[in-house]
Amino acid sequence: MPFLRARLCIVIETIQIIKEVLEEKPFSVKEIFEDNWSSYLLTNKVRDIEQKEVEKMLSCKGIERGCFVFHCNNCGKELIVPFGCNSRICSCCGKRHTDKWADKLTKKIIKNLTYRHLTFSMPDILWSFVKEKRELQKVLMDVAAATIKEMFSFALKQEVVPGIITVLHPFGRDIVFKPHVHALVTEGGYNSQNKFVKLGNYIDYNTFHKKWQYNLLTALRNFIPQSIIDLCFRRYLNGFVAYIKPEKLHYGKGLIKYIGRYIRHPAIANSRIIDYNGKGVTFYYEDNKGNKTFKTMSVFDFISAIIQHIPERNFRLVRYYGVYSRNNIKRYTKIEIQSVIEDKILNKSKEKRVVYCPCCFERMELITYVKKPPSKDMGMITNW
User: Fold this and answer.
1) For the whole model, what pTM was predicted?
2) Per-residue model confidence (pLDDT) at position 336
């Protein structure tokens, strides 16, 4: 049995190495920041949160972040597994965060309902105001949710409360600051008798666009010049775009990951960077039709474009409204909200992490985790 297990581990390890070689990319966001971040700080002023998140990303999987320590009871080998950084701009940690969020939300959403994906955008004349006053990003999310509730109630001819999960997305495919809101919405809502009323296939898109425009500009009156508000009404007579995708989404982890891909990941994936020569960065992006556009930027412009999308500390990119709001979720879903962490980090890791000894291929035991760098004689140091 140990022999078969050892052979199996060797095969798995070989496949993983081949996979990593095939997927290896010559350039990465982390590499560009490592080469240029110090020079960038000499001539550019950054927000405190930007500096913090970049420094976290640069230390990702570094032993200075702390680590898990595994021990092999068979041969005595010790294995050190460094922590990730969980930075907002780290490509490595973005997927892990999305998966955790998806698992958590899958237990929260209401089963046996269909969902729709809505996207709320606004014209470029407003982008700079939202970037300058980042608290307006929450206004976008609040107004999008209010517009959905208003339009659903109008379409159903009665007051209803839909389930709404909004995600603030600050960038476009070209990594320009383009704040917009993605929303995962139940296809209908609960009326005053707590009965779910399903929304029909027909939605008045013209009214939807104009209502989104009116609600948003009304909410922004206290933050931006009145002349800009008036210009938006005159220039966009058909309202702002509120796109409702035709696909109907059903309960399951696939549903959550569908919308989850819009959160927490950095503005650009490493796979889209096709050239970096120390002075400039070239990457590509695809439009809605799948056509590729190539774009070249100086290194400093590229760094500025990436870090501008880092939200302020404690700003929630995902918010819940209607049925899924904190006040309503227990009423409609009968789910108890947990106010404390379920498991301590060590116990949780013992359940999820399975590591085999690189020497004898026996299963290793997680013995502890440390917050400070371990001593040099603790054994093998590796990324995992």
Assistant:
1) 0.77
2) 39
